[in-house]
Amino acid sequence: MTAIWSEDQPIYRQLRDRIVSSILDGSLKEGEALPSVRNVAMDMQINPITASKAYQELVAEGLVEKKRGLGMFIMDGAQDRLRQAEQRKFLEEEWPRIVERIHAMGLDVAELLAAAKPKNNGGGDAS
Questions:
Q1: Which helix (H) or strand (E) holds 71?
Q2: What CATH number is given for 11-76 in this structure?
Q3: Angle at 11 (CA atoms; ends 97, 82), nearest 5 degrees
Q4: Which residues contact 55 (CB under 8 A, 6 or more apart)?
Q5: How far apart are CA 63 and CA 97, in angstroms?
Q6: pTM of the predicted model, to two decimals?
Q7: Residue intervals in the chain for CATH 1.10.10.10
Q8: Neighbours of 57 (CB within 10 A)
Q9: C-alpha–C-alpha distance, residues 3 and 107, integer Å
Q10: Confidence of residue 2 (pLDDT cuts 50, 70, 90)
């Protein structure tokens, strides 16, 4: 696994965010074991303490649980909790800015909704 880290936030936070994204998109499933800290550190070419810190954040957030002698596992309900948190964040932080921009540009909500619907090209082939 090739890891490209940005300079704008700590690596442990970026690793945490990657794991969260994998839980949200379903590539990491509830009940599934995370790779060991040692394996993540080697694969990502980071310090094991950095990987451990990312895992500890996930534990603190109630997304991952440590099973003594077995490793770290995605907790049941983690995907739903993450989705709810992302929806809440969107509605509280992003949506108000989007609505403000819509009003500033004088756009009509009905037009926007119509434009968001998938277009049907008649269902046939043009050839």
A1: strand 71-74
A2: 1.10.10.10
A3: 50
A4: 34, 37, 64, 72
A5: 29
A6: 0.75
A7: 11-76
A8: 18
A9: 41
A10: low
